[in-house]
Amino acid sequence: MHVVKRVEELIPAGVQEAFDRLQARRWDVARRDAKERLARLEKLQQLILARREALADAIHQDFRKPRAEVEATEVMPVLQELAYIRKHLKAWMKPRKVTTPLMLAGTSSHVRYEPRGVVLVMAPWNYPFNLLVSPLVAAVAAGNTVLCKPSEKTPNTARFLAELIRDAFPDDEVALVEGGPEVGDALLRLPFDHIFFTGGPRVGRRVMEAAAKHLTSVTLELGGKSPVIVDATADVTTTAERVVWGKFLNAGQTCIAPDHVWVHASKEEALLAAMREALERFYGRSEEARRASLDFCRLVDDAAFKRVRGLMDRAVTEGARVVVGGGVDAETRYIAPTVLADVTPESPIMEEEIFGPVLPVLRYESLDEVVGHVRAEGKPLALYVFSQDEATVERVLRETSAGGTCINTVVLHNANPHLPFGGVGQSGLGAYHGETGFRTFSHERAVLRQGRTSLAHLFFPPYTGKAQKLARLASRLFE
Ligand SMILES: NC(=O)c1ccc[n+]([C@@H]2O[C@H](COP(=O)([O-])OP(=O)(O)OC[C@H]3O[C@@H](n4cnc5c(N)ncnc54)[C@H](O)[C@@H]3O)[C@@H](O)[C@H]2O)c1
């Protein structure tokens, strides 16, 4: 017999209790001024600084991420975010006065930034520290209580995070629950005030469906295929090294990694040769040297290894040429940094986000053609354009849509806290970083105060015709 469980039975006791504690404390936490909020974040920062070696060990154990990459892509962005918040939080929290239209003479208005309440931060595994702690600090800065869930695919980092959060915050202000999809599913049944989710579009859709039940607002930081366009005027050497760096960082397991490259036919062979050169300079001149390189990560699990290997093998079977790479080692989940040429839009590797160290290069003849392809692929999280021609750059910006764009480089827009970071359409909804993060975790409350004099009584019933005449007169102001 099929047994339908009640909602309460689907939520593990520990999870429900953690939520209830955060719920009970939310109004006290919401009242805090900037100084008190910053004191909490200060403690977190001290613990991060004291434990950065342990963090590097944990992430290394999870997928052999090099220490230098842990510093540059996990620790530094979080410290930068904390420093930026420290500098600006007081100003961000200030109510913002707005002007008063003539019709409302006698009133004054302002916008207050109030915390959303109890928020859920669900993180992916690929930058397991940064992508949990960055939204967390924005949420705390905005005065929320927070429940976090790291990914089960990076268990060492999840354990590190659990201890860090436990030591940095009282458990009725910030809590962390570990677990996989079942725990994620249970969390999504709770009536949070906001859900901040980073992960794939499949689970993102599930988050939005679950949020609809409680009319919970969501921020979705998703993924997709981020293209690179290299036109005929681009500098081939610098283009190659920047694209190769951004692609093979984290072994291609980066949401804003260049997924594939569209290169103008006149530059194709030169670009491929320069990419090969850059890749060998970065990771080693031979396949053995690259396999032994300490600067190159592994795929996170067997499923990821099988999926990326399958994509690469099918592309080659269907006619792609291996320019460099192509090797694999299932035991260590190693896929060589690989560049593929002669790939076409119909190739299976163009069907889904690659999320691994394989870079297909496609050639194009006209900008119209490549713009058409990019539009057909949906709105990506990032789109990169390499060109010395301002008109080309402007056309690409005007005729396509993407979460973010870098011109003549890749990935770095993510590192500027003055820029909002987020997707559009299938690549996400909402944004964070810096002030945008504070606003994301705040509700903009509209406040209007009536002074002594008021024109409103002119519109009170009974309507003698005077009110209508006045409204008509007033509407002339807008003609
Ligand atoms: N936009 C961004 O900032 C950004 C950053 C990093 C990664 N990503 C994207 O994330 C994806 C890779 O990360 P991933 O594999 O960890 O993503 P994922 O969607 O599989 O998992 C993300 C989180 O959701 C949880 N989860 C999984 N299944 C669930 C379910 N059925 N119900 C509830 N929760 C569930 C996981 O445990 C994890 O905590 C890629 O698509 C990548 O592009 C986006």
UniProtKB/TrEMBL annotation:
Family annotation (Gene3D superfamilies): Aldehyde Dehydrogenase, Chain A, domain 1, Aldehyde Dehydrogenase, Chain A, domain 2
Gene Ontology CC: one annotated term: cytoplasm
InterPro entries: Ald_DH/histidinol_DH (IPR016161), Ald_DH_C (IPR016163), Ald_DH_CS_CYS (IPR016160), Ald_DH_CS_GLU (IPR029510), Ald_DH_N (IPR016162), Aldehyde_DH_dom (IPR015590), Aldehyde_DH_NAD(P) (IPR012394)
Active site: residue positions: E221, C255
Sequence ranges assigned to domain Aldehyde dehydrogenase in this UniProt record: 4-446
One Pfam assignment: Aldedh
One example GO MF annotation: aldehyde dehydrogenase (NAD+) activity
Alphabetic keyword roster: NAD, Oxidoreductase
GO BP terms: aldehyde metabolic process
PANTHER family hit by this protein: ALDEHYDE DEHYDROGENASE, ALDEHYDE DEHYDROGENASE ALDX-RELATED
UniProt record similarity statement: Belongs to the aldehyde dehydrogenase family.
Name the UniProt record assigns to this protein: Aldehyde dehydrogenase
Species of provenance: Pyxidicoccus fallax
